Amino acid sequence: MQRFILLIITVCLFTASSSVQPKQTEKALSEVERLFLTCKIWWFLKYYHPLVGKGSFDWDEKLVSVLNKTRSIQTYEEYADYMARWIYYMGERPPCRSCNQPSSEELFLENFDLSWTQSPDFSVELRKALKDIERNRFQGEHHYIGQGKVGQFEPKNEPQHYDLDWQNRNQRMIPLFRFWNYIEYFFPYKYQTEQDWDEVLREMIPKFLDIDSKLDFHLAMLEMVVKVDDSHAGILTPIIEKMPYYNYLPARIEMIEGQAVVTEIIDEAKSREQDLQIGDVIRTVNGQTVQELHDSHKKYIWGSNDAAKDRSIYHTLFMGLSGTADITIERDQAFSNRTISFYTYSELSYETNKTLEKWRTIEDSIGYVDMGALTTGEVPGMMGELRDTKAIIFDVRNYPKGTMYKIA
Hints:
Layout: H1 2-19, H2 31-48, H3 50-53, H4 59-70, H5 76-89, H6 124-135, E1 145-147, E2 153-155, H7 169-186, H8 197-209, H9 214-226, H10 238-242, E3 251-256, E4 259-265, H11 268-273, E5 281-285, E6 288-289, H12 290-297, H13 306-310, H14 313-316, E7 324-331, E8 334-341, E9 359-362, E10 366-370, H15 379-386, E11 391-395, H16 404-407
Helix pairs in contact: 2-4, 2-8, 5-6, 7-8, 7-9, 8-9
C-alpha cells in the first residue's frame, strides 16, 4: 500500500512539473537600442498621430517623460509593453477614410520605409497600434510641419530651447532626435548618404550620452549635421568659434594629388617671417602626416564628397591646435622642420591690391577663363582677346557670376 501511494505521489509530481513550461528568455535591450527605438517612435507619432499632429501635446515634454520612465527598462518585451500602453492612453484616434485609397501616382520610395514599425521584437499590441496610426494618420494642416515658398519642409511651433541644459542627458536627446528625423522624413537625398541613416543614429547616440563639456555637445551636433554629406549642411556656433577651430597660415594651402601645397601668399610679411613660399609641400604636423590629420578632421568638415572636403583644408587642417605647431616642409626635394604660428582671419593682411587674372592665354595657344571672377560686363573683352585661340577652358569649379548665358 505504501509503495502504491509513493508511486501515485511520484507520478503526480512528474505530471505537475512537466506541465509548467520554463519562461522564454526575454531579449535584452541595450541603452543605445532603446534610445534608437524611442527616437523613431517619438517622431512617427509626432508626424502621423492625429492628436499629436493637431498640437494636443507638448511633444518635447512627452519625450523627456518617456525617456525618464523607460530608462530602467532592459528588455524588448518590457519596452514594447510600455510603449503600447503609452499610445493607448493618448486617446482614441478618429478613422481616416481617405488615407488608404489606391493611387495611380508613381511614387519614389527610396527614402520611405515604415517596415520597422512591424519589427518582430515588438509586441503584437505595439505593432497593431503603430499600423493603425499609419492607416489613420493625421490629415490637414500639421501643427509641427510646414512648407516654405518652394514647397520645402519647414518646421514650425518647435521650441528653440535656447536655455537647453547640455548637462541633462534627456535634453541633449531633443536636438539629436529632431535633426535625425528631419533628415529621415524630409531630406530627398537621404538614400545617397554615405552611411545608412539608421546606423548614423546608432553611432551618434553614444556620443550624445558621453558629453563632458558644452563644446563636446556642440561638436557632436556638428558631426551629426556633417553626416548628411551636403556641402551646404553645417553649423558654426559661438561655442565652436571660441575653440581654436579655424587656425590660419599667412599662405593658402590646397590639397593637390593628396599633398598639402602652398598655392598663394596671403600676407607677404608674415609669410616671410615663417619662410613660406609657393610650391612648399607640408608633409607632417606635430608628427602626423597631413592626410592622417585631415582624415581625423573630416567628421567636422561639411562637404558632399572627399573632394569637397579637401577644398576646405586651408580652413580646417590646423583646427583644434593652439598657437603653434611643428611641421615638416618639402621644398625643392629637400626637407626642413620648423615651428609655425597660427593667426585668426582678422590678423592677416590680405593683398587686396593684387590684380586678379580673370582670363589668359596658356601654353599652345589655349585660352583660360576663371568663371568665378569674370563679370558679365567683361565678357565681350574676354571673347575679343581669346577669339583666335585654339580652344578656351571655362573653369566653373567656383560660383560663376551669371556670365554663362552671356557667353552662350
